[in-house]
Amino acid sequence: MTATKDPATGPEAPDAEARRLAATGVRPSPFYAVVIATPFLWQGEDVPARASRAAGLLRSHLAPPRRHLISSERDRAVAVCGLDHPHDYPRLVGEVDRTLVSLEGIAAAAGSPQPGVEGIPVSHREATEALDIRLRIEHPWPTLRYDQAAPYMMIQRTPSVAATVIAPIRPVLEIASAAERRDLLEAIETYLAATGRVVPAAMRLNVSPKTLYRRLARVAALTNLDLNDAEARFKFELSLRALRLRQGTGTEALRPRGGTGR
Q: What three-state secondary structure class fits 193?
């Protein structure tokens, strides 16, 4: 992901900030991973205050002595975390998740563990790229790891791959009525999220099971895919995830909603 230009720091702001953080007296560790947390920006809340609260939670709950909250700036909290070994990385991400899950509407991303202080800018850049993906997709926990974001990045950066992945759901996107298009996209997404259980999905959508069945039947007729078939459900899941990564038709209907807890 190309860094966006910041009026104060220029186009390479993420790397410049990471290099600055690396020079702020972080205690020596064999490996470092950077975690960035930010509120969902479309919730219309006091973003700096929520970012500061996320920073306070990380400061209070990440285990010392090798984990150091470095900054809470603008719309995000940034933590540089020292690790004895890359194997400690999943435990770190788990701690971040358990810390942030109580703050509804907070998204986070973690760069991969990198050797030495000189690896901090690399992990920071990875966390920044993963956070961009995290803000566009549903995820069961607050934090998305860089390796988890990689498939989404491939779809986002390769138009031919994105077109192929989105193809199964395209007949729905071509519906003239924006309201019907939104209803059908939400129906299939919620149905899949409920692991094929119609009643819980209908309750989440605040519609009757009969209405949801009717919408799912309409999706099946348009796409010529059977929702009872596991391969078809997999294609729908990939298509919906790809839609979250692009701007245009479908993304408004597919914005993440509510909390990020498991």
A: helix
SS3 262: coil
Whether the model pTM is above 0.85? no
Task: Give the H/E segment covering residue 80.
Answer: strand 76-83
Of 36, 32, 12, 8, nearest to 22 by C-alpha is 32
Cis peptide before 159 (omega within 30 of 0): no
Which domains does the chain carry?
13-150 (3.30.70.270), 157-244 (1.10.10.2840)
Contact 61, 81 (CB under 8 A): no
Contacts of 3 (CB under 8 A, 6+ apart): 11, 12, 13, 14, 15, 128
Model pLDDT for residues 86-145, shown as the tens digit of each residue: 999 999 899 888 888 877 778 899 999 999 888 989 999 999 999 988 888 777 788 999
What are the tokens at 197? Answer: 């259980």
Mean pLDDT of all residues belonging to the chain: 78
